[in-house]
Amino acid sequence: MTPCIRRSAFALCLLACSLAVGGAHADSPAATTAAPAAASRPAPKPLLWKVSDQDNSIYLLGSFHLLKADDYPLSSDIEQAFAEADKLVFEVPPAELSDPALGLKMAQLAGYSDGRTLSQVVPVDVLAKMKQVLGAEHVSQLEAMEPWFINLGLLIGVSQKLGFQPDQGLDLHLARRAEAASKPVAGLETADQQLAVLDSTPMDEQVAGLRDFLADPAEAQKLLTETHEAWRNGDAKRLGELAIDQFRTDTPVTYRIINVQRNDAWVPQLQQMLDGAKEGNTLVVVGAMHLLGQDGVVEKLRAKGYRVERICSACSGQK
């Protein structure tokens, strides 16, 4: 068993791609109407950075795309960043995430373009394990689906059993609040672009992730809990260990496609927000993985000479 591949799957689902949870539930009324309940424990410590030049600033906020009701209310640091922001920018424009057709688009893209089926792609032992875990009838209904889509469904299923909900995700929560406050919103990429990213991961790495999840579904629950706690604690180092380090080493192509290439495409857009004096302040909300480590946009912007500071009143010595 190799938990590193399972880590890449969780990064994909919860820390990297908003469509992974938003698109899968775009046709649900809860995705646009639910409001988080009051928290019974302290607010999460934010993964929040302020990047500035001479004219204006952008805030970079690391999201967890599935959260629980008691992850709210948000910290005062996020509230202040939201108040100062003239607009909000997400991975994908919120209107595209709420499009009822998005789930169908995702399912269509998850099919095989070359006529193959799941039974022809996954090894016999993996198929047998799927039937054992999911039931033969259910597996037969997945014959037309690629492993990345199946793995995503399994991970979302595990997360919901633990109380995580897509309508509670930080992105959707702040998108609703931006709409209520009449703040403009935008996206760094389109839904179609993000779907293409999900579908372009190598088949061998998709199969390996599916094999690993099926080998020990209980371990996936443990990892999800650890990843969520690291996010709640604002622990960038621990979150990087869980979501990035072995992901980068053991699934390098997927890591490059999911993280590096998209970060590189976003940096010029973020620079434009900073360099345009008329842009005002912007709150940028993306999966937390995109902000962490040397490949993260925080360090990429720091390397370009912008002033970068971690904003976390409740943190002690975290960067």
UniProtKB/TrEMBL annotation:
Signal peptide per UniProt: 1-26
Name listed for the protein in its UniProt record: TraB/GumN family protein
InterPro entries: TraB/PrgY/GumN_fam, YbaP-like
Tagged with keyword Transport: no
Coiled-coil region list: none
Keyword annotations from UniProtKB, A to Z: Signal
Keyword Signal included in the entry's annotation: yes
Domain of life: Bacteria
